[in-house]
Amino acid sequence: MKAEIQKELKLMASIFKIGVVGFGGGTALIPVIEREVVEDQKIVEKSEYDKDVIVASITPGALPVEIATGLGKRAYGAKGMALAAFLMAFPGVLMTVLMLSVLSKVDEKLFVQIECLSIGLTAFISCLLTQYAVKSMQEAKKESVKRFGRAFVIMIAVFILSCGKSVYNILGIKETPVFGLSTVQVLGIAFFGIFYTHCRFNIKNTLVSGITIILYILCVGKAGIIQNIYLETVLKIFMFILAIHGLYVCTRYGMSKGKRSEEELEKAGHRLTAAGFSKEMITWLLFIIILSIPAFIITKDTWIYLFRGFASSIISFGGGDAYLSVADGMFVSTGMIKESEFYSQLVSIVNVLPGSILCKTLAGIGYFIGFDIDGSVLQGYAVALAGFACSVAASGIVFCIIYYLYEKFEGIAVFKLIGRWIRPIIAGLLLNVMVSMIYQNIETGTAIGGSVVTTLIITFVIYFVNLVFMLKAKAGNGILILISAVLGIALCNGILI
Fold first, then answer.
1. In this model, does residue 107 exceed pLDDT 50?
2. Whole-angstrom Cα distance, residue 337 to residue 363?
3. Is the torsion defined by CA of 334, 339, 342, 348 positive or negative?
4. Percent of the chain topping pLDDT 90
5. CA angle at 48 for the pair 46 and 49, rounded to the nearest 5°
6. Is there a contact between 98 and 361 (Cβ–Cβ < 8 Å)?
7. Any idea where the domains of the chain sit in the sequence?
8. What pTM was estimated for this model as a whole?
9. Cβ atoms of residues 116 and 448 within 8 Å
10. Which positions, given as ranges, span the membrane (predicted)?
């Protein structure tokens, strides 16, 4: 019992630590979490972690919170699920709300030091992103040269399709990128290809999927090479129909074992049953209700706020930046908060602090709703707490639903293929995230008085220091985070400021 408690505390401490230093958010934290809970702490198996990543990647909401939900519930059921999600999101939300409440009293120098810290930690996370890509290729090569070749092509193709905006920004190119697809669009293409072809590339499969994907890319690419909304709509419907047909063929003609029964799941060591699923849903409902009680007491608008918050969370695909546009439509355009509060204060803060942008933004909106009633900071905190609960629960609920379905149908061959090829797909997306983070460092460095070249030098110095300590000294995340933070503050203050 004591060992079990210690293991639980270790997992929760690891998740909280990632929540504190989670600069970059979303997809960027996939290798950070993996290194902490799979490699360093050895709390979960890599195959189980990959399953959480698959489900979180195809699910709307806050991705780090969803991965924490999966880790917590697999180890400790509904209780661990809610606690892990809470600890992942809470540090960033707390910092955001505190920063909003003291914004007028905070010395600008404090913001500068936070930005220096972010430069160092962004370099650390960028190092983990490249290591994730390298390990994914090494794993593919161990299986066969043929699989390595395919995995490498997939990774590079995903990177090319998604990196346009980031690469153009770094190079200072003002033109519209040719591709620049979103994460959702890239994943949609990948899953369509897997569902339809089952990775069996005969002449028919290759021609149909290849032509369809190329036309789709030309339609949705940022350059708008084909600007025809009707063709784009037809292509989306066509891809959806082919994907469903592929799934039907997979289950109908013996290409899988079909779905697994509750008994098979139990025998395999999985805790996910219908009763367990119901308990999870009840847990999330109580999570929202209990943490929202103070907000309900303060304002009757809490119901509207939570409804819009939940809706905005479950339709939020594509990461934090995408959520900002959703939140604009839900809360700014409808007059729930002022445009000046959202863009002049909240957006700048959520982008500089660690944690999920979705959770920070929804909690920050809640703070303004409560504060604007009669200027009370405590009322702002109370409504912000409700927004925090809503963002975490919405992400957790959708994750649990998709996870339940994934577990039930994991025996289908096509889902095994997703598990087999998800790492090179994620690796390609992470390379794009790394480029985006480097550009963000350039923006931060120039904003505090440095040049592009100097900021890049500082970033890569910290990057290579992390690489040396990681590979040669086998340093854990804690040491690397400390080194990166110290170097970020020291080098930026010594050179940029």
1. yes
2. 12
3. positive
4. 36
5. 65
6. no
7. 2-258+401-496
8. 0.80
9. yes
10. 12-33, 53-71, 83-104, 110-130, 151-171, 177-196, 208-231, 237-255, 281-299, 305-326, 346-369, 381-405, 425-442, 448-471, 478-496
